[in-house]
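Here is a typical sample entry:
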Amino acid sequence: MINNQTLARPYAKAAFEYASAANGSDAWSGMLGLAAAVVEAPEVAELLRNPRLTRESKVEAVLRLFADDVDEAFRNFIANLGEHDRLFVLPTVREQFEAYKAEAEKTIDVELETAYELSAEQLETLAAALSKRLDRSVNPRQVVNPALIGGLVIRAGDLVVDGSVRGKLSQLAESLKS
């Protein structure tokens, strides 16, 4: 069976290309966020799974919830998704759209898991170093986890760098078991 990532990809790509050409990627990002939130609502998700409703009635119901907050092109996009019975992939379309947007803008979200709260200066220094290393503008988000004991774990996309004391102790324990 085909997964949501595969189903969403052509829609996300088309949406991103359209939004980029129209200089509206931020607006489309917001509209996709709104639409994704709507279809993720339990009541709407149940409605979309109802086999007795036609595709057109599902589109009408979904659009009724946010039609005033989106432009005509976006309403057409939603209608196209509905016509192909793909409204349920909107959250995945949004995720992929954001990935395309981040790639185009050369930005990346980075999670910094630390044992204690970093100062603004430390966070800024770390973000600058990561920005240089990753060749992207970094959007750091700090997560405090005292279980790390010290150091930090950096997560940026597929990259994970564990420089924590807990990580080093785990590596040492593994090497001693060998």
About this structure: DSSP finds eight helices and four strands in the chain. The chain has two domains: 4-102, 107-177. The beta strands are 107-114, 137-144, 152-156, 159-162.
